[in-house]
Amino acid sequence: MDFERPIEFKEGLKKIFKSDIEFSEYIENLALSQRATVLDTLIMFCEENGVEPERIRTMVSQSLRDKLRVNFVERGLLKAESSLDSFFN
């Protein structure tokens, strides 16, 4: 098991994106340009970079969290009255 990769990835991510807002804006803009949901785009980003989504949760802004929640509700993966707080805390 390689426990160092997520740490290296997170540090590398902080070098590329100066803040959670910058990272979230990147994901949102990428989603718009690809005509995809932010959920699909975030999953694609994680797959292409070999990282588990749980490892980037600190880089997701509140705005992106809200959009992700909408995507989860639209897909029936989350009840409308529920939140994603347990994932992000």
Account of the 3D structure:
By secondary structure, the protein is an all-alpha fold. The chain has helices at residues 4-16, 20-34, 38-48, 62-74, 85-88. Helix 2 crosses helix 3 (38-48). The model is unreliable at 1-7 (pLDDT under 50).
Quick structural gist:
The protein is mainly alpha-helical and 89 residues long. The protein has helices at residues 4-16, 20-34, 38-48, 62-74, 85-88.
What is the terminal-to-terminal distance?
A: 25 Å
> In this structure, how is the largest beta sheet organized?
none
Helical coverage, percent range? 55-70%
| Unreliable stretches covering 5 or more consecutive residues | 1-7
How many separate domains?
1
- Bin the strand percentage: under 5%
Q: Please, what is the average pLDDT?
A: 82
Give me the Rg, rounded. 13 Å
Kindly name the structural category: mainly alpha
**Tally of helical segments:** 5
SSE string, helices as H and strands as E: HHHHH
Overall 3D form: globular
- Total beta strand runs: 0
Which short descriptors sum up this protein?
mainly alpha; 0% strand; globular; disordered N terminus
